[in-house]
Write a structure and sequence with these properties.
CATH class: Alpha Beta
Number of helices: 8
Order of helices and strands: EHEHEHEHEHEHHHE
CATH architecture: 3-Layer(aba) Sandwich
Strand order of the largest sheet: 3-2-1-4-5-6-7
Radius of gyration: 17 Å
Mean pLDDT: 96
Largest sheet: 7 strands, parallel
Shape: globular
Strand content: 15-25%
Helix content: 40-55%
CATH superfamily: NAD(P)-binding Rossmann-like Domain
Low-confidence stretches: none
């Protein structure tokens, strides 16, 4: 039996209509999973779902809203009969010096990056229990392990993701639910394209520090997503796994 075969499994990927989310969704779909993408941009979401192999759909969702998260889970189960995999990938960043953030800036980033994962996990939990277990993959960042002057709420939210993942990994192990976080490094996406224009010298510093010698691609996240979504990781839980080309190990 192939431990990485996801045939018959149903996966939700929040923020899956582009970037890292779509890269992971593509990997899960190629492994046989039925995919439900969730996000706010309807046109982008339906196009992304249409680009995936196998069964894939898109549900318009504001994952910062509890009712929307509950509806996302309910509609997924109504469509496909179960939920096996939840990838909490929705995220954003606002880049300012720490003293310049407004309270609204702080809450926008924290709600999008962290509160959304909390709400989706709570909504998904009973359905995973019904299914006999499940896989939760929360997307952190190398910024959960280091500091940067322009990333206060982003780094705080990603550090919180790592700790929250450890908490649910311990709480829900009895239910055969494994929860892990992935820590992407600098991946070439729309989000980081903006960072390159806002942070002078960023491209050069990323290339200099990354042993792989390049920025990551969304497809670089596909393999680790399939591993953490599959039975191949049944004895892996509470881990925070970098996918960064060696960025964090370079002094």
């Amino acid at each position: 039996m192939n431990p990485f075969d996801l045939t018959g499994k149903v996966a939700i990927v929040t923020g899956g209509n582009g970037g890292i989310g779509l890269g992971m969704a593509t990997g899960l779909a190629n492994a046989g999973a039925t995919i439900v993408l969730a996000g706010r941009n309807q046109d982008k979401g339906f196009k992304a779902a249409a680009s995936l192999p196998g069964k894939a759909s898109f549900i318009v969702t504001d994952v910062t809203k509890k009712a929307d998260c509950a509806r996302l889970i309910a509609e997924t189960v109504a469509l496909h009969g179960r939920l096996d995999i939840l990838v909490n990938n929705a995220g954003m960043a606002i880049r300012k010096n720490p003293q310049d953030y407004t309270e609204d800036d702080w809450h926008r980033v924290m709600d999008t990056n962290m509160t959304s994962a909390f709400l989706c996990c709570q909504a998904a939990y009973p359905e995973m229990v019904k299914a006999g277990g499940g896989k939760i993959i929360n997307i952190g960042s190398v910024m959960s392990q280091m500091g940067a002057p322009h990333a206060a709420p982003y780094a705080a939210s990603k550090g919180a993701i790592v700790q929250y993942t450890r908490v649910i990994a311990t709480a829900w192990a009895k239910d055969n639910i494994q929860a892990n976080s992935i820590l992407p490094g600098w991946i070439d996406t729309e989000l980081t394209a903006a960072a390159r224009t806002q942070v002078p010298g960023l491209n050069e510093s990323v290339l200099a520090r990354t042993p792989a010698g390049r920025w990551g691609r969304p497809s670089d996240l596909a393999g680790i997503a399939v591993f953490l979504a599959s039975s191949g990781s049944d004895f892996v839980t509470g881990a925070a796994i970098p996918c960064d080309g060696g960025f964090l190990i370079r002094s």
